Write a sequence for this structure.
């Protein structure tokens, strides 16, 4: 048994049985070892950003990490944006970066680079496996490290010779640290805030946005008469009929300020104190209103759901106090296809248990509202802001969730970063419906351009325009083997989406939307 | 005049008048400032790897840097692989990475990251512009630094507020350091080696592979009876009828060892001492034969052409001693389309002055041989080994070379990393012919898998297979607005290529090749 075989066996024994990969020469022993460990599901991507984003989507749904296999520094670079997103969403990932053989580094061959320097910013844990004897414990440590808490990217740099040399065999899984319980004194302090009667909101993030956390938060909200707000871009939010509903903090700083206006207390549950996504001239970066005190109930990595449940009980909130969203659906839309009728069609059709991956950006503005009463579903957003996450995350979420449909709402500009994901969806036979919101522009930048106080001329506007040439997403999808259609009216979109929900395997619908909102 | 306007004016005044970009919110003032400086040509890319690769191709042909504009750490990550390639090819690039406003960093907003850590490995020079007052001199310094010598990536981190604040205006260009002349004592040492009569080869790299360097090297070769070898993957090699011909050092270590076998002296001209691209069990990483002494005539950044010319004169080589390749072309091929007939068609048709961008990998094996006697042309390779360089480099080379045709030989696997480049080719009306060598696999990895001594089973082989599903490059090209055809016989390929050479604007030809060589 060589190092690679023992490594893969160690990963599988620790519960990591899926590896998204785009390997090269230095990873060939890892690839060859796949046949020796049949439990490892290896998923090929045409581009590294697909592999890292898929690992993010996988872990968000599975609650445990996938592995990624990348080829040296440049492969890591290609996958870096989606590792950044995973870091911001506290997603556990075992990020394996192949490297030259240990003795080869000194020759500065063309692909030699400083992998650690590239990996540092996205990784909560980094180790270079420098011998076959310790490789397996390195791997077990990487898996445990990826869980955090909070979850993080654990990067294991894997020299080629460490894979090909003879190994003593796998090691058992390392102990995983569970989320930290919140201290009683903190709970009591927050209880006093809740009882103050002053205007208060609870800002929920991370795992508190799953059903148990939401129910406990809603009990608190109803009993103490405080508001609930979700983080702007949650990695995973459970929502729909039968679950407590809550608004998300708005992306645009001006609107977020209005949401928070008048608060005296803001209680953070796994969330960061709200700040503007970008800086704008004359707008404050810190969005907490003057005179509002920020309290921390739970930090990322704390048992936020447990804290919310205890707090609800301490408040004396009845077990059935949570307010649950009633079932409701918009009518089937007709006529012009625009952001509103687009959203209505989704609300009219969304089946139970769909995983929605939301990179709809500006054109997706109305979708959350129109699906608030749809059957329960998961909603996966972009916590790190690096676009090109949607199609890969949809791919990984589908791999983790056999039997569930994934609906990927994807803006045209964002789609073009990691479009290669469609090919993996075909290869793996995944039930992913990709809807391209094609408004023929980087519409969000048109908005941002005016918000930052810039005065664009024709040359600037050309840099935000996607009509020269027009992207034909139907042809692009077909090029990657995905069945695709184009919708130009509300009825067409509705009917195509209905067919896609009823048909297995990947589909793409290009929704032609007006260039502006 | 704000900082961004003064920055762009400073770049243009320093000779940097082309900027490849994929901007985001933090770059909006830069984008808005484009209208104030009409001399700056701004070229939009759908993905950052296209922008950085295009800047590489541009500078290889223009001999001066382009600027790149990227969005924060994730945008830099997306562009990193092609910056790695530029670094290995000593290409000057002014790499501008937008960042949050200086005062916004403390809030750790979602897109905050350590840009410098990501940039370090690829950059010969890094600076963060921390005030509008010094931004223009930072920019002038970046341009000068990019020239080296040798050329390098100069990374300027550009906070948003530094762009939007009021500026004192542009500054003049900073002084560029010219290549260092080689010392007389070195020339005399090398002269003695050349006169030794012992088996000697000269390994040429970088700028010595342009006509003047090649002619001088050929004079030396003919007079001293020594061999000439080019580096394995030159950033730019001038070749064809009327120019000295030379073999390139082989990629596969076993073949390179055979090429170098028996040498007593190896003279490096801007080249690194030859090492194996990857490490393989039981194969030496250092390819210099035992008993062979390595001599350095010129390091990267030295005036290697001047040194070769002086050395030729010192040797008493006649001015006309260089041996020039005679014109010759293969016959128009017929029948089966395979690596050989594919190459013959290119050799039969290649017009004068074409820029060939070669990412053909395994399937392109015969092309160099079949074009050795074609009319003179430039040949651009992949010095850094990070695949996905070809389509972006072809794009940038075309921007730099109006009136010249670019022929991009692109392997199917490599094409899928930065396919988005085609869209920029349409937008800019570039004369690029992309030929996809579609052998439906990562063929080079099939080869490498056996070379590293791995014994693959079906699962491993599936990770190298591109037939599930098959990629339809004609549809993909059409999706990005490029006219495309498919060739399945030698005649079809020949005739489609003939039409493409005769027609302006971008074209794509998908050449269906057998799965193995």
């Amino acid at each position: 048994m060589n190092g690679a075989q023992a490594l893969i066996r160690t990963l599988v024994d620790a519960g990591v049985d899926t590896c998204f990969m785009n390997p090269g020469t230095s990873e060939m022993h890892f690839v060859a070892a796949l046949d020796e460990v049949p439990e490892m599901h290896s998923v090929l991507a045409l581009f590294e950003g697909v592999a890292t984003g898929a690992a993010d989507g996988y872990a968000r749904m599975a609650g445990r990490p996938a592995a990624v296999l990348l080829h040296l520094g440049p492969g890591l670079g290609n996958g870096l944006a989606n590792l950044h997103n995973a870091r911001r969403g506290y997603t556990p990932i075992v990020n394996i970066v192949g490297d030259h053989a240990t003795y080869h580094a000194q020759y500065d061959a063309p692909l030699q680079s400083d992998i650690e320097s590239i990996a540092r910013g996205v990784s909560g844990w980094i180790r270079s496996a420098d011998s076959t004897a310790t490789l397996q414990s390195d791997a077990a440590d990487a898996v445990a490290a990826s869980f955090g808490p909070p979850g993080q990217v654990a990067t294991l740099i894997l020299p080629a010779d460490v894979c090909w040399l003879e190994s003593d065999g796998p090691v058992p899984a390392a102990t995983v640290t569970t989320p930290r319980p919140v201290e009683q004194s903190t709970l009591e302090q927050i209880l006093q805030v809740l009882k103050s009667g002053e205007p208060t909101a609870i800002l929920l993030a991370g795992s508190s946005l799953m059903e148990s956390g939401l129910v406990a938060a809603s009990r608190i909200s109803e009993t103490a008469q405080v508001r609930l707000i979700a983080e702007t871009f949650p990695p995973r939010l459970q929502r729909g009929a039968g679950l407590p509903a809550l608004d998300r903090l708005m992306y645009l700083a001006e609107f977020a300020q209005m949401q928070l206006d008048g608060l005296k207390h803001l209680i953070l549950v796994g969330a960061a104190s709200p700040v503007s996504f970008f800086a704008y001239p004359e707008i404050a970066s810190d969005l907490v209103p003057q005179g509002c005190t920020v309290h921390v109930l739970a930090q990322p990595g704390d048992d936020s759901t447990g804290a919310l449940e205890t707090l609800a009980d301490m408040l004396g909130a009845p077990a059935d106090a949570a307010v649950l969203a009633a079932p409701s659906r918009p009518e089937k839309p007709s006529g012009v296809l625009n952001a509103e009728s687009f959203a209505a069609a989704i609300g009219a059709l969304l089946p139970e248990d769909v995983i929605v991956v939301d990179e709809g950006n500006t054109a997706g503005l109305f979708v959350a509202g129109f699906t608030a009463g749809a059957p329960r579903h998961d909603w996966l957003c972009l916590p790190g802001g690096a676009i090109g996450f949607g199609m890969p995350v949809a791919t990984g979420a589908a791999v983790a969730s056999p039997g569930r449909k994934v609906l990927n709402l994807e803006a045209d500009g964002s789609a073009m970063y990691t479009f290669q994901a469609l090919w993996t969806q075909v290869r793996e036979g995944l039930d992913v419906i990709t809807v391209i919101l094609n408004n023929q522009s980087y519409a969000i930048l048109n908005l941002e351009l005016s918000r930052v106080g810039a005065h664009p001329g024709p040359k600037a506007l050309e840099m935000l325009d996607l009509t020269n040439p027009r992207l034909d997403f139907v042809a692009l999808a077909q090029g990657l083997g995905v069945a695709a259609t184009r919708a130009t009216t509300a009825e067409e979109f509705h009917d195509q989406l209905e067919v896609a929900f009823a048909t297995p395997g990947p589909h793409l619908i290009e929704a032609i939307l007006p260039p502006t909102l």
Notes: Chain A touches chain B through 103 residues (CB under 8 Å). The mean pLDDT of chain A is 96. The first helix of chain A runs from residue 3 to 13. The two ends of chain A are 59 Å apart (CA to CA).
